[in-house]
Amino acid sequence: MALCVVQQVSASATHDYRSEVQSHQFRPHSGDKQEVADFAQALVKHRANPAELEKLLAKDSLNHFAMQDYVKGLALFKSVQVVEAVPEKLYTVTKEDAYNNYRAIVKFKYVGYTADNRVIEKTDWIGLVKRGSMDGAAWQAWGVIWQDSGIDVSDVRLIQLEKPQKGEEIGVMTTDAGVIKLRLFPDKAPKAVENFKTLAKKGAYNDMIFHRVINDFMIQAGELTGPDGKELPSIYGQDFEDEFNRDLFNFRGALSMGNAGPNTNSTHFYIVQSPKVDQEYLDLSALPLNAEAKYKEIGGRAYLDNRHTVFGHVFEGMEVVDKIAAQKTDEAARPLNNPVKVQKIEFVIYNP
């Protein structure tokens, strides 16, 4: 995501709001939040109305022209939906009267719909100044403090939640707790799929325990060691790179690579078992709109997206995953008694 700091100087501007000295900071109350939310709605509503915009922009700001350009950017969308507009900072400044010394730094998150039917999500930070008198005061925008370049959040085809086609190769993982059936996505994550299949066909995962189990999160396996006790590498002889794309997510049931950081994939894999999703992580992620809705519906761990490669998905046997996740564990999330093992992993042609 590109950073774009907007700072444009007008020849007729007289005030540099960036250089003001704070006198106090406040915790925004419900009235402040409502005023900021109303301002954001007005900015969106009047984005193509110059007369109304004049009431919303601080004319004396050094960044006045930049704010005009910013609103012109909003006007390029055929429609705009405000997702969030909240004061991240609320403070007063020196050398102003009591009705004109309030300032706010506002998180402004919105979704814009383009003429070619794309959906763009942006989160910007805008500086506001309060102007008025005893008879009434209103917020105006003095400048953009930080502006992102936007993320395409148009709907995608959620292929991992589709049933396999007749004749498609699937994975069948037989465990002590039952059978888990998996779709694999070699066209989306070819190296991860090939690594998993090759190791499984060699029997590397046979009689291997799920060594890390966290109920309402995930079950992890793939801890392979050689005769010398050292951890074995991937089939490529070393760690291999991540394979991220817009089509696969860490929904409940996702089969993903465990790692120790970027591009450190080896033999570890996990299955997401979480039946819920943390709204905080959805708020911080720019996901396709239907993917965000699906997370809310079926659960998962959205914060793992673009950190762990998703290369498959459980289409049958989630009750087995839940059973494995319910094992009692120690503080390191290792099962205490008779840990469930992977007996074998086979690959067969799907014939419903």
From TrEMBL:
Top-level taxon in the UniProt lineage: Bacteria
Alphabetized, the UniProt keywords read: Isomerase, Rotamase
Catalytic activities = [protein]-peptidylproline (omega=180) = [protein]-peptidylproline (omega=0)
- Which Pfam families does this entry report, sorted A to Z? Pro_isomerase (PF00160)
Give the enzyme's EC designation.
Answer: 5.2.1.8
Q: Which residues form the PPIase cyclophilin-type domain?
A: 169-335
Question: What function does this protein fulfil?
Answer: PPIases accelerate the folding of proteins. It catalyzes the cis-trans isomerization of proline imidic peptide bonds in oligopeptides.
Q: What is this protein called?
A: peptidylprolyl isomerase
